């Protein structure tokens, strides 16, 4: 008896452990459910918190892979948590920590979901994977596919930085540039995955196995801080990272290991912010982004054109956590990228800088309570979009 199964996030229909992306009854996206009573207790987390391991696979009972199966790993996870000194004003004893997902094998958090998804692909006996990517998913997919010996085909929009394209090719993936933006690449990847019977690793809620890898950020944060932070600030495209982190905290609370949940702040770039727009308009549903998707934060530029329901799913998680959604202007990203590098020694991808700029913005607008512990997720390394940033980094910080 396995302890997990894919379940429809909308209607609750449950499925076999198989390569499946949407509910056959209502077409909704899926989520993995576990037999929590059997596997996940306070003692389970207490034991792990005291153990010396750092890889995501120490949480394998809470990942959707078969217990006896081989895992595909490059040593992902176990990333540092560092405290900033110079981003927030020293007011009200608030602290800002950075979860350094940039210190993963391919320099972005995507190694967590992709390690899990590629492991699942290998367990399903598939020999081919496909994905659409704004860059980091593709790089991680290519690396883990190489490690597993799987054929990997990636579809990227034109805006994808050269650093990421080149990495995908060096890992041996077949790379196609699709005219238009991420949603166009998403559509082509979906067609190709069906045509070739390949596992689709596209980062939205498309692949329920991949999303689970993001939960490991939550477990690590709770162990590293010794408590649940008040706020977690996450750059979002469609939002599976944000949802995955929140799910991880819910599991720890369910197990009795922690007693509260964090509030989740989802951050987008002003030039492409469909989830933020719906949040501010008080809408129940996210609409596809209607204008041009224009921002230097290419990693999160997702207009959600044909899958706005993915945005709605993220929005509902943000609301459930009593969180917020906010957007940051490109000019602020350039300013904070430099500030973060010059004052904290952290070089972050432009998409990731949104979470740091958002922390400062939340403090300035009085959103952070006294003594608040805040974590911003540094989702990707600055080396992954050097050329995109370089043209913008002239001039002084303040
Ligand atoms: C993919 C990505 C995001 C957004 O994550 P989602 O889970 O797709 O919303 C944020 N930052 C970086 C650097 C990324 O690569
Ligand atoms: Zn359904």
Helix content: 25-40%
Overall pLDDT confidence: 95
Give the strand line-up of the largest sheet. Answer: 3-4-12-9-10-11
Number of helices: 14
Structural class: alpha/beta
Proportion in β-strands: 15-25%
- How many strand units? 12
Contiguous low-pLDDT stretches (5 residues minimum) are: 394-398
**Overall 3D shape:** globular
Gap from first CA to last CA: 59 Å
Largest sheet: 6 strands, mixed
Following the backbone from N to C, one meets helices and strands in this order, namely EEHHEEHEHEHEHEHHEHEHHEHHEH
CATH topology of the domain at 81-108 and 210-393: Rossmann fold
Seen as an oligomer or otherwise, the chain set is single chain
Bound molecules: pyridoxal-5'-phosphate, zinc ion
**Rg, alpha carbons:** 19 Å
The CATH C-level name of the domain at 81-108 and 210-393 is Alpha Beta
Reported CATH architecture of the domain at 81-108 and 210-393? 3-Layer(aba) Sandwich
Throw out a few tags for this protein:
398 residues, alpha/beta, Rossmann fold, six-stranded mixed beta sheet, four-stranded parallel beta sheet, 14 helices, disordered C terminus, binds pyridoxal-5'-phosphate, binds zinc ion
Can you give a write-up of this model?
The chain is α/β, with parallel strands linked by helices and 398 residues long. The protein has 14 helices and 12 strands. The protein has helices at residues 36-39, 42-50, 111-123, 136-148, 162-170, 182-196, 208-213, 215-225, 240-254, 274-281, 308-320, 330-344, 350-364, 386-390, and strands at 4-8, 30-34, 81-83, 95-100, 128-132, 151-157, 174-178, 199-200, 231-235, 263-269, 324-328, 373-378. α5 (162-170) links the parallel β6 (151-157) and β7. It is globular and about 55 Å long. The termini are far apart. The protein binds pyridoxal-5'-phosphate and zinc ion. Zinc ion (ZN) binds next to loops.
């Amino acid at each position: 008896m396995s302890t997990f199964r894919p379940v429809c996030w909308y209607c609750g229909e449950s499925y076999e452990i198989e390569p499946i992306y949407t509910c056959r009854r209502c077409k909704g996206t899926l989520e993995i459910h576990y037999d929590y009573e059997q596997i996940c207790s306070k003692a389970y987390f207490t034991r792990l918190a005291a153990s010396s391991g750092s890889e995501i696979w120490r949480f394998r009972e809470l990942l959707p892979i078969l217990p006896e199966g081989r895992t595909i790993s490059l040593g992902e996870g176990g990333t540092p948590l560092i405290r900033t000194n110079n981003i927030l004003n020293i007011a009200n004893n608030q602290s800002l920590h950075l979860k350094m997902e940039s210190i993963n094998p391919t320099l972005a958090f995507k190694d967590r979901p992709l390690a899990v998804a590629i492991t699942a692909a290998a367990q399903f006996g598939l020999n081919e994977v496909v994905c659409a990517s704004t860059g980091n998913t593709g790089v991680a997919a290519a690396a883990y596919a190489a490690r597993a010996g799987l054929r990997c085909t990636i579809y990227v929009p034109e805006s994808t930085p050269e650093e990421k394209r080149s990495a995908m090719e060096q890992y041996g993936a077949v790379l196609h540039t699709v005219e238009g933006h991420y949603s166009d690449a998403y559509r082509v990847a979906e067609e190709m995955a069906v045509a070739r019977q390949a596992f689709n690793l596209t980062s939205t809620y498309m692949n329920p196995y991949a999303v689970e890898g993001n939960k490991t950020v939550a477990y690590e944060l709770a162990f590293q801080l010794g408590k649940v932070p008040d706020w977690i600030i996450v750059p979002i495209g469609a939002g599976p990272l944000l949802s995955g982190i929140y799910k991880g905290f819910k599991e720890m609370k369910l197990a009795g290991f922690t007693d509260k949940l964090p509030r989740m702040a989802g951050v987008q770039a002003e030039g492409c912010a469909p989830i933020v727009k719906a949040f501010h308009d008080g809408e129940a549903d996210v609409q596809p982004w209607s204008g041009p998707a224009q921002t230097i934060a290419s990693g999160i530029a997702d207009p959600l054109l044909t899958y706005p329901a993915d945005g709605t799913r993220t929005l509902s998680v943000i609301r459930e956590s009593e969180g917020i959604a906010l957007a940051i202007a490109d000019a602020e990203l350039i300013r904070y990228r430099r500030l973060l590098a010059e004052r904290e020694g952290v070089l972050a991808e432009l998409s990731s800088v949104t979470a740091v700029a958002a922390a400062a913005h939340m403090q300035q607008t009085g959103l952070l309570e006294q003594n608040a512990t805040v974590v911003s997720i540094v989702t990707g390394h600055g080396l992954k979009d050097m050329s995109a940033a370089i043209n913008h980094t002239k001039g002084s910080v303040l």
